[in-house]
């Protein structure tokens, strides 16, 4: 009585990934990388915007004389510059809604103009 046992054939199981499996695996790897890139890009953009908006402007004060307009002030303090640019800077610095001024009103003038 011979017991004959058949030895199992040693075969290596080969893993096969289907097309759908490759797509899933690729998206699992690439998805987080894209998310990190987007977050880094948004962070870099806000850092740039923050650093450029923190400019320091030095200024002096000037009192408006009776009958004087902002145009006349601009021509007096910066004769070599376009008065429209000077007026725009003054209005922006003083957070004025219009370019109208009243006699006796004190306004801030950027030192770049007050030195001239």
Automatic annotation (TrEMBL):
Q: Where is the LysM domain?
A: 61-110
* InterPro entries reported for this sequence: LysM, LysM_dom_sf
Classification via Pfam families: LysM
Protein name listed in UniProt: LysM peptidoglycan-binding domain-containing protein
Species name: Labedella gwakjiensis
Q: What is the lineage of its organism?
A: Bacteria, Bacillati, Actinomycetota, Actinomycetes, Micrococcales
